[in-house]
Amino acid sequence: MPRKRLTLKDKQKKKQQTSFVGRTEQLTAFQENLNLSAESDAFINIFNIYGQGGVGKTTLLRKYEDSCGRKDVLTAYTDEGVKDVVDFMASVASELEKKGHPLKKFNERYKVYRQKKQELEADPKAPEGLAVFMESSIVKKSVLGSESGFVGLIMDMVYTNRLSKYEGKWEWANFVAKKIGNKDEVQLVLEPIEVLTPIWLEGLVDIAEDQRVCLLIDTYEMVSTFLDEWLYKVIDNRYADFDANILLTIAGRHPLDENRWSAYAEFCAAFPVDPFTEEEANTFLDQRKITAEPVRAAIKKLSGNVPVLMATLAKASPDKVEDLDDVSHLAVDRFLKWIEDPNKRVAALYGAVPQELNIDVLKQVLPEDTAAEAFDWLQSMPFVQKRAKQWAYHPVVREQMLKYLRLRSLEDWVELQQKLYAYYQAKQSALNIEQQKQYKNENWQQFALRMLYHGFCGQPEAYLPTALNAFVAALDEKQSFALEVARTLRDAEVDTELAQERQWGEAMENALEEYDKEQYRKLERLMKRLLDAGHLNEAQRPLAYSWQANCLRLSGEYERAIELFSKSIGIRKDYKEAIFYRGLLNLHFVKYEAALSDFNRAIELDQEYGWALANRGETYRQLGKYEAALSDFNRLIELDQEYDWALVIR
């Protein structure tokens, strides 16, 4: 019988596993739990490991995964690479399929969801703002959450004059319904979480009936904003029954929220992961055959016994250490000095600059003929990991590398950032995508984010206006991409050590997260701050005023909203959406002439602006001008026979 092929990578991984140090309590508790029946009162369903960056949470999670493998427990690992709940479910399904356990029903529906969503976004006839509409939870609740159904909701809207609640989004809902046709598929596109979760869970439970399943969720601090509430609902049977034979292992910088998870506290084990104890640190160094006491002392002092920094320093395997008086407080300073090969030293330092690591990227910061060899060497380093579906430095080590590089040579820092900016700019240009299709292309978006990061890192002050305008433009096109812009700017501000009071990214991120929870104040204040800063160009200022106005409108501050919509229109005379919304608010205040003026102007700008026609018709109806109202409703039906609500009102 031929032997199973063993690669050098396999040997390296095996050696790393056998040299695992410490974490005995966390590992033993998990392994003993695997021996228990799910019916046992002592069985733990949720393992939560938490601690600062670099203490080995990912390594421990991988040890859990190995333990599961030895017990024939099926596993699926995810990290910050997932972008939302649906992406998380798809990632788990993909992992399970690789191991011979496909979630067939989920995969089929998910494929339909992706296909229909792409068709809608690519349709040149799609109403403006469709992508934002499809991402908005409040719209989904409004469109699909009415107890009285579609027609009943229209009647409620018309006869109670609650137009502001439903906004202008019936035009978009009608477009989705007409484009897709199938009622189930319409619901799938508008409510993917509600539709897909029970199907996903059904598949997971089917597997768990015959084989235990363990979901391993890493870097939870990066995904908890969208995953935590949903995950709790999943185990709380809000979508379907959650099988007790399914394990959750969650690793992040913070413990799970006690207020949310307290109901399941007795089935949850929370383990803090701290830097190595003195005994563990000594064992770690013993395993790596580092015996010189001055070297051991230097490694422990510089690393603070943080495992990833200890591993980084130990990898250089020094025989002696110089006097510590001239050593920087950064562990990477000593690590770099211990690397004798100058090419490897440069590769370790410059390789930290890009956010992703591959040979093509390394060619931008290193001599081309050394990039492949450098990449292979970096992959063998303990601080280089596959994270979010790409190779990258461990954040703790990367942070120190970047800090060291900035201290060593600001000119080198700027030059490297400019090279990477030019690289991604060239890749984006090579896509040759029309402007109206750019926000629908994932590659274009990713290159735009890389350009934003390196452009800002290279020249923070000069690039700030570009970054702020990019955020507002993205927000008006695709809210999920605007969130990515905010997070990228946040990362760039942190990596350039920008003072907290001068930062924007975190405030943008928080405002969008609150907006998605139907809390509008933070985004309204952010728009005001953006406008007051004076960096927005003529194209983005009216958008910012309109978003600020819309937040005020949704908060019930209609008069201030009208003022800001007017400011937006004052800058951009043909901004039909702002004109329409001002008309909507004028109608709310029973200012019929002003409302008609706005609706007339919006329709003049777009003869097929269905929602403006509908509200002009409703204004005429309230004025008793029934022939004019009937004319507008007839025009709507001419435009589209499937305007059910226009038929009802007529």
From TrEMBL:
Q: Which domain of life is it from?
A: Bacteria
Q: Which UniProt keywords apply?
A: Repeat, TPR repeat
The TPR repeats lie at 576-609, 610-643
Gene Ontology BP annotations: receptor-mediated virion attachment to host cell
Coiled-coil zones? none
Q: Which GO terms describe its cellular component?
A: cell outer membrane
Q: Which Pfam families match?
A: TPR_1
Protein name per Swiss-Prot or TrEMBL: Tetratricopeptide repeat protein
The organism encoding this protein is Phaeodactylibacter luteus
